[in-house]
Structure formats: C-alpha cells, structure tokens
Amino acid sequence: MSDIFNYEIKIISAQETIPVRHPVLRPGKPIETCNFEGDNLNTTFHLGIYINQQIVGVVSYFKSSTNLLTETSQYQLRGMAVLTEYQGKGLGNLLVQHGDILLKAKKTNIVWCNAREIAIPFYKKNNFNIIGEPFNIGDIGLHYVMYKSLE
Length: 151
Ligand SMILES: CC(C)(COP(=O)(O)OP(=O)(O)OC[C@H]1O[C@@H](n2cnc3c(N)ncnc32)[C@H](O)[C@@H]1OP(=O)(O)O)[C@@H](O)C(=O)NCCC(=O)NCCS
Known about the structure:
By secondary structure, the chain is of the alpha+beta class. Helix content is 22%, strand content 37%. The longest helix is centred in the middle third of the chain and has 15 residues, at 91-105. One of its GO terms (molecular function) is acyltransferase activity, transferring groups other than amino-acyl groups.
C-alpha cells in the first residue's frame, strides 16, 4: 500500500522516461544509453508516475516474446525505475499494477522481464516467477527472466 496518495499515472512518450531512466538505470553513462530499441514503435507504451507534477517513476512495455514461454500474446516489461528518494513507497507496485490493467485490456497473456538480481524481491512481490537460468547483460550484471500470467 502506498503512503503517497497524491500521485498520477499517465501514458508518456519514450523521451519523457529519460529523466528517470538516466539517473536510476544508467547513472554516469551517456544519455543515448537510455534509449531502448523499439521505444517508439506504436505497439510500445510507457507509463510515468507523477508526484506534484514531477515524474518520479517509469516503466515501459514492449510487444516482444521470450522463447522460454509458448504463449502467443506476450509483452516485455523494461526500464522499470523509481527515483532513489521515492523508492520503497509503493510507487513501483502502482506502476506495475497499472501496467497489468492496460496489458489485460490488450488481451495479453504473459508479461515478462529481464530482472536484475537486486530487483527480484520486487518482482516476486508483484507475482512474477523466475524461469530458466541466470545470464549476464553487459556491465549491468546477472539477470533472470521473470514472468507472470495475466488472467
Ligand atoms: C525496483 C524498483 C523499481 C522498485 O520500485 P519501488 O517503488 O522502490 O518499489 P515498491 O516500494 O513499490 O515496493 C514494492 C514491493 O517490493 C518490495 N521490494 C522492493 N525492493 C525490494 C528489495 N530490494 N528487497 C526486498 N523487497 C523489495 C517492497 O518491500 C514492496 O513490498 P510490499 O508491497 O509488500 O510493501 C526501484 O527500487 C528501483 O528503481 N530500483 C533501481 C532500478 C532497478 O533495479 N530497476 C529494475 C531493473 S530490472
């Protein structure tokens, strides 16, 4: 449950995610490293959570399938990030819950992600399960594929 009640979640552009993606996911790296392939496809969507008109958290969803699962209608969650000073207040939960609602409206069966090891407890709290073996992504470190079924 969130202890911040004055929040707003909006669909935003890829560009609007950068003020959160950059400090949280690519600190000290060039701004271009915050752009993901497929960010501007019309099947991709991005959510931002705002407190007092300031964007403090983002998540993006890409129409993409993992070959670890056979369901045909899958979306990949990427770029999950909440500004450091706003973490641990339930905002990440709110973003994922909102994403689930929009994915269900698109008749999506599975949402999955490449979860950093450190974020596994967060995804578990949000009903994701690990599938397959861990793997390394560049210099970011060990990741696990995690997924959940959307009824
Ligand atoms: C991961 C992240 C998005 C979570 O957002 P958040 O707003 O801090 O998470 P919430 O406050 O909504 O936490 C949701 C639940 O996960 C749990 N959780 C979150 N981070 C956790 C951690 N590191 N260890 C254990 N539990 C954790 C919380 O206790 C909470 O449980 P509850 O619902 O029972 O209260 C955020 O911490 C972040 O941006 N981290 C750095 C970037 C990152 O690692 N992104 C993921 C890349 S795969």
